[in-house]
Amino acid sequence: MKPIAIALLTTVLLGLAACSDVEEDTRPGQPVKTRQAAFKDLLRSFEPMGKMFRTGPYDAARFATLATELATKRDAPWSHFGTDTNYPPTKARPEVWSQAVEFERERQAFLTATDALLTVTRQGSPAEVEKAYFRVYDRCESCHQHFKRK
User: How far apart are CA 63 and CA 128, in angstroms?
Assistant: First the structure.
């Protein structure tokens, strides 16, 4: 390979490596990686529910199954926000720890909204279910706005 081609290839590869913000969680128990995986697992239950309202059709039985899954999984991430878990690859802002009372309020609001969603899923109309779904969505957005780096 010609020296100029090698230099160009090396420059491109180094540039791509510098753009990567993927870092490993090397701490014992990998708390950051574990909570990120738990949030992604929540999303795997939550997103299909939203898709039913955005693109249809609404399937009450499937929605109820997904709402139950969400309720079952919803507690998984929170215990992994320990005081020593504000390090890369976290997307959490320092305010998670410096504004712990507000963060806990957001968590409680999310839990309350998921409880309401589960309840209305069992006995409500599709319109009521949709409202409850978007209350959960709003809780997620509110917490992300204050406590998550984009």
Answer: 13
Higher-confidence residue: 25 or 91?
91
What's the CA dihedral at 15, 21, 27, 31 to 10 degrees? -160
For the chain, the helix, strand and coil percentages under 3-state DSSP, each to the nearest 5 = 75, 0, 25
Please report where in the chains the tokens 């991430």 appear, as a residue: 77
Report the C-alpha gap between 57 and 59 in whole angstroms: 6
Residue 92 and residue 59: Cα distance in Å, rounded? Answer: 34
pLDDT for residue 23: 76
pLDDT mean over 13-26? 55
Higher-pLDDT residue of 7 and 126 is 126
Tokens read off for 140: 């997620």
Contacts of residue 76, Cβ cutoff 8 Å, sequence gap at least 6: 35, 38, 41, 42
Residue 27: per-residue pLDDT: 79
What is d(CA 146, CA 149) in angstroms, rounded to the nearest whole number?
A: 9
Q: How many CA atoms lie less than 13 Å away from 18 in the CB half-sphere? A: 6
